[in-house]
Amino acid sequence: MKKAEFPLSEIREDYIHDRFVIIAPSRTLRPHDVQRFRQEVPVKSKDCPFCREVEVQSQPALFQIGPDNLWQLKVIKNIFPVVTWKNPKAYGHQEVIIETPHHNKELADFSEGHIGNLIEAYIARTRELTKDKKIIYILIFKNHGGKAGASLVHAHSQIFATAFLPPHIVDKLTRAQHYRIEHGSCYYCDLIKKEIRGARKIYSDKYFAAFTPYASSYNYEVWITPKRHIDNVTYLESREIASLSHIMKRVIMGVNKLNLPYNYYLHQAVTDKDEHFYLRVCPRRDIWAGVEMGSRLIINTVSPEFAANFYRKYFTKKV
Length: 319
Fold this sequence. Notes:
The protein has 6 helices and 13 strands. By secondary structure, the chain is of the alpha+beta class. The strands form 2 sheets. A 10-stranded antiparallel beta sheet has the order 3-4-5-7-6-11-12-10-9-8, sandwiched between helices. Strands 1-2-13 form a 3-stranded mixed beta sheet. Helix 1 (about 110-130) crosses helix 4. The longest helix is centred in the C-terminal third of the chain and has 20 residues, at about 240-255.
């Protein structure tokens, strides 16, 4: 495609995160003489600490599916934490969810039922961690690929729970509250109703909606949001878990087709009981450089409308 055929750049506001994004599709034509991204190829490793055959048995399971010698999913303490319950200066808990015993399998390879098991692990550990009354923030996240921060290839995600609420989370909650006061409704509930009627819709059923946000910070970014107004992952019912599993598998299949590393996350402020839960998928294609770091303006070279069209085909084919 020639430069003249690309739509003109457009500045868009991300209201809830208080940032501006420049959607600039023509920037994809820039010449590059360096390797910008490459997805790592999994290599079988007899030394992988997360493989069932070598996983340290002395590390007790905080949550587990399957018997000890045939576990299918396991949650353990992070042995290299940055926050611990023993440190009053950086109090918290860090856990690792080993998503599968198999070294070369990852989320898009899982059955929807096994993805449901993963979500059940998130629910169980969130419930347990909120029993610690010092914890006011819980972040569940997955790093896939070295460019997304993963230090091990084996499929895993993590839970980070702290007695500290990051300032940008406070800002986001404050803006959501301002919207509620001004409009008399939830920002996210209104957003879902709008997006499932437009060009950024990827998929929608009775329980969940998936769309590419209007001011996407990342190329091919996706939000997956329950239609029911629920505060956090622990309120999900069985049919909602099945719907979320269905969407997650197909979205990650699309990201894998692009050969991109990615992060996804869901989080909650424990002290706010009226948030609207969502899961955000952030493929890591472009690298933030001088403009982003200096001005805090984000340049996204893939329009959300184009990205939504790309993902939709993964919901029309059998897998």
